[in-house]
Design a protein that fits this description.
This protein has about 650 residues and is of the alpha+beta class. The protein folds into 3 domains: about 200 residues, Heat Shock Protein 90; about 240 residues, no CATH class; about 90 residues, no CATH class. Helices cover about 30% and strands about 15% of the residues. It has a 9-stranded mixed sheet with strand order 1-6-5-4-7-3-2-12-13. Strands 11-10-14-15-17-16 form a 6-stranded mixed sheet, with helices on one face. A 3-stranded mixed sheet has the order 18-20-19. The radius of gyration is 35 Å and the shape is elongated.
């Protein structure tokens, strides 16, 4: 590739337009600035799935409605990413080649290149809020390979453009004395551009074809380290020291690529369609908490191999629909208790009662997801149609006092108009929810996930944005998402997997999250107290009913069935006496303060202790009824009867050494 000559995007674009099928190709270096090179390194994307995430995001920004990915699993010999988006024009392709990382997204010039809306540079031509930001998606491919091909077509064109790319490895200057400037342009690769004839004028979209995956990338997709450890340490697998994932894509012999060392273990049937396959994959995780060999804390790491785990991460990150419903589209039939967060800093969460058929979205006027333009976007990978695998119904049950899941919802749009944008970062608008369930499945869903433009590069943050108050048990039981509709773009770091924590938007959302968690924790404690009190009252009534049945049985044995249990009352100021208000009814009245003189007052205060005392009273009443039926009270006077009960209370209801 030594004969390329265009030095700027305009020259290159003109050459691309003039290329004909079968004609001489255009060859040119890929260029970027030292500023971008410093910010983007080979390690920017931490795992191979993140590279696919970036390519999916690029397709979304190009107004694609469908992305189809083939990884050739479990061989991983060839990877293709195909979308039906707008495709690269000659100008946009030239701009990318000559200024990688110098994205024209979010600029007025983006409309001229056909990559942004004419009305708003923050939107795609079709009106979607853009996910991409710095134009570094091309570098994502370097996580997978150094050589790949782009095949792209714009609607109405009679040709497809083919760009064969080679990416170089970045290296530091050989001379330590030489300093690079931010504006210095570096050659980061080479490209050869050709054309192919296209018969379908209405076709559009882009294919990215990777024929040579890096060996380390193939090994990660194949879970090679895991399988070799399992094969070399069978005793560790037997003892549980090494986990054999119950679901995996299989493992092929390196020397014999068609021979399985481990045959695939998948949860779907061969005849299932793409969506049903993914539903069953998700269900295989959710069902881990039930049945034989139930896992108390099922995780992606112990359930799946790397390949399925990567698919799960992609499904969490992409701007796609939920596996069932968006949480804001749930209604009363979902079986959740719904609460609305109060105003940050001085509010409290209040329960809302949904009307029949009314959704949370309708009740609270919520907007998420705000995708704009065409909201339809589907991602299919190796015959599985991804959905966001977060459940809000059919959640696992435990022995927790609260049985019903709790969904807390809130929104905020702080007034920043009176402040300088350079200090505030501009407007900010977001919505969010916090879902409490006794057990989060999988455990990797514990935490908060921030979505900007309905997409996410990060996974769940289990610290809840560094929430400092000790609420460990509750924190382990919460899943939360925040949907940012406006703002936060500048707070995203270059890898899109992390945030600049010092940015005002991040700081504000963190403060909102911490306050929201406090509101949730306060309400959860209150609801837990109510549930415990309800259980105590239920237990008290059950004890009373059982005592009544036992007493009736005993008295029937003593009297031959001729008498019913006498009524017993312990009154605060009562005098010991026999009282017959009506014929056939006998009431024994005793002084509560005398009978329970040795029962400490401190053991009667508070809801729980008061109910326990009430239960003790019922037990003593039952004993009194038995004594009366047995004729014991016939032989002693009223004062001695009361004294006897006081002594029995002292012995039977021995409390705290009193």
């Amino acid at each position: 590739m030594a004969d390329a000559q265009p030095t700027n995007p305009l020259e290159l674009a003109e050459l691309i337009r003039n290329v004909k099928p079968g004609g001489k190709p255009v060859r040119t270096p890929l260029r970027t600035s030292e500023r971008v090179i410093r910010r983007v390194t080979d390690g920017i994307y931490r795992e191979p799935w993140a590279a696919l995430r970036e390519l999916i995001s690029n397709a979304y920004d190009a107004d694609a409605t469908k992305v189809v990915i083939s990884t050739d699993a479990p061989r991983f010999g060839r990877v293709t990413i195909r979308d039906n988006g707008n495709g690269f024009t000659a100008d946009s392709l030239a701009s990318m080649c000559k200024s990688i990382g110098g994205s024209q997204k979010r600029t007025q010039h983006g409309a001229d290149l056909g990559i942004t809306s004419v009305e708003d540079p923050d939107l795609s031509p079709g009106g979607r809020r853009l996910i991409g930001k710095l134009g570094i998606g091309l570098f994502a491919v370097s996580q997978l390979t150094q050589k790949f091909r782009i095949i792209t077509k714009v609607k109405g064109e009679r040709e497809r453009t083919v760009a064969d790319m080679i990416l170089f490895r970045h290296s530091e200057p050989k001379s330590k004395l030489r300093k690079r400037t931010d504006d210095e342009i570096e050659t980061t690769g080479e490209v050869e551009i050709t054309k192919l004839p296209a018969e379908d004028l209405n076709a559009q979209g882009t294919d990215i074809v990777i024929d040579e995956l890096l060996q380390r990338t193939r090994d990660e997709f194949r879970s090679r380290d895991l399988w070799e450890l399992i094969r070399s340490s069978p005793e560790e697998v037997e003892s549980g020291g090494v986990n054999r994932p119950p679901f995996h894509i299989g493992f092929l012999d390196v020397a014999k690529p068609d021979k399985y060392i481990e045959k695939p273990s998948v949860p779907w049937d061969p005849d299932d369609d793409a969506l049903e396959r993914f539903r069953k994959l998700a269900r295989s995780m959710f069902d881990r908490v039930n049945g034989v060999g139930a896992d108390r804390k099922p995780s992606l790491a112990t359930t799946f191999d790397n390949y399925f785990r990567f698919l799960w991460f992609l499904s969490l990150s992409a701007p796609i629909d939920y596996i069932d419903k968006h949480p804001f589209d749930l209604d009363k039939s979902a079986g959740l208790r719904v609460f609305k967060f109060g105003k940050i800093g001085k509010g409290r969460a209040e329960e809302i009662e949904l009307r029949a058929g009314e959704t949370i979205r309708e009740r609270l006027d919520l907007k998420a997801p705000e995708r704009g333009g065409n909201p339809d976007f589907n991602v299919i990978i190796d015959g599985l149609e991804l959905r966001r695998p977060i459940r809000f119904t059919g959640l696992p049950e435990t022995s927790n006092k609260l049985k019903t899941p709790l969904l807390f919802v809130g929104t905020d749009a702080p007034d920043m108009a009176k402040y300088d944008d350079r200090k505030t970062g501009g407007p900010l608008r977001f919505e969010g929810y916090l879902l409490w369930c006794p057990r989060v499945v999988p455990v990797e869903h514990n935490g908060v996930l921030l979505r900007v433009g309905d997409a996410s590069g990060s996974l769940f943050d289990s610290t809840f944005m560094k929430y400092q108050i000790s609420e460990q048990t509750r924190r382990d039981q919460v899943t939360s998402e925040i949907f940012v509709h406006e703002g936060m773009d500048a707070a995203l770091n270059v890898d899109r997997e992390s945030f600049n924590h010092a940015h005002p938007h991040y700081q504000y959302i963190a403060a909102w999250m911490h306050d929201a968690f406090k509101q949730f924790a306060t309400k959860h404690k209150s609801l837990g107290g109510e549930a415990r009190k309800k259980d105590l009252v239920t237990a008290h009534h059950a004890t009373k009913e059982r005592l009544s049945a036992v007493v009736e049985e005993i008295i029937e044995e003593w009297t031959g069935g001729d008498e019913s249990p006498v009524k017993v009352e312990f009154l605060e100021d009562g005098q010991s006496r026999l009282f017959k208000p009506r014929e056939k009814e006998t009431v024994l009245v005793f002084s509560q303060s005398e009978v329970f003189a040795n029962y400490p007052l401190g053991e009667r205060t508070g809801a729980k202790k008061a109910l326990r005392f009430s239960t003790d009273e019922e037990k003593l009443k039952a004993i009194t009824q038995v004594l009366y039926a047995a004729g014991v009270f016939d032989r002693i006077g009223r004062e001695r009867q009361q004294r006897l009960l006081r002594d029995l209370a002292r012995v039977i209801f021995f409390v705290g050494g009193q």
